[in-house]
Design goal:
Helices cover 37% and strands 11% of the residues. By secondary structure, the protein is of the alpha/beta class. The protein has a single domain, classed as HAD superfamily/HAD-like (Rossmann fold, 3-Layer(aba) Sandwich). The protein is globular. The N terminus is likely disordered.
Length: 229
């Protein structure tokens, strides 16, 4: 199967579904998983996606990444907002050096025309766009599908780049490295919360980020400290 066929088989475009951003059984279980250090192990922490430097990560950790699974909302761009040009430039630079990239998003039905245009631009550049028919994050089955899309790369050659342990952190269960990005909304200094659900989501992200950092300071059985870029 060639690359084009693989992309078609997993969905040439995202099929947004509001339920993907809502509460699922696996998200409830993930809440409790994240109390354990092995589910918050973090390879690197970034202020923003455009700070990603695979050479620096390799030098600090010995891990050579040949593929990345990318979140969109609050990672490449703001929640349901446009993807900035700096993110497109880094994506192109990664593709030019032979890094394989796949988009895996829990985008909801509110995704707008600008976001659809941004996803089309990423796809046209050579990024694999996983379809909305695959399980929503943090379901490990969805990450395994993402790994299938990046074949023949193995899990330890791939990292998930995302802002949220609650969803993106599910990659850790699939054996994929996790690179944590500060949510774009935090970098932008977002104004009033859109609704209570959005506020609760942000609170959870902050809480589990704190927990993950605490797991790096346990006297025994904790995680190695993440590389900070």
């Amino acid at each position: 199967m060639n690359r084009g066929e693989r992309r078609i088989s997993i969905g040439a475009t995202m099929q947004p579904d509001q339920s993907r951003e809502g509460v699922t059984g696996d998200k409830i279980v993930q809440f409790f998983r994240l109390m354990l250090p092995r589910y918050t192990r973090t390879l690197a922490r970034l202020r923003r996606f455009s700070d990603l430097d695979l050479d620096a990560i390799a030098a600090a950790t010995g891990v050579t990444l040949r593929g990345l699974i990318l979140d969109v909302d609050d990672t490449l761009g703001a929640h349901h907002g446009p993807v900035p040009e700096a993110a497109f430039e880094l994506v192109q630079a990664l593709l030019d050096r032979g890094v394989r990239l796949a988009i895996y998003s829990n985008a909801d039905a509110g995704v707008n025309a600008q976001r659809r245009a941004d996803i089309a631009r990423l796809r046209d550049a050579g990024v694999i766009v996983l379809g909305g028919d695959i399980p929503a994050k943090p379901d490990v089955a969805g990450f395994r599908r993402a790994l299938d899309a990046l074949a023949p790369l193995g899990a330890r050659e791939v990292a998930m780049v995302g802002d949220n342990y609650f969803t993106d952190g599910g990659a850790i269960r699939a054996g994929v490295h996790f690179i944590k990005v500060v949510p774009v909304s935090a970098n932008l200094g977002d104004g009033p919360l859109e609704n209570l659900s959005r506020g609760a989501n942000i609170a959870l992200r902050v809480a589990f980020d704190v927990i993950s950092r605490l797991h790096e300071h346990l006297p025994a059985g904790g995680n190695p400290k993440a590389t900070r870029l």
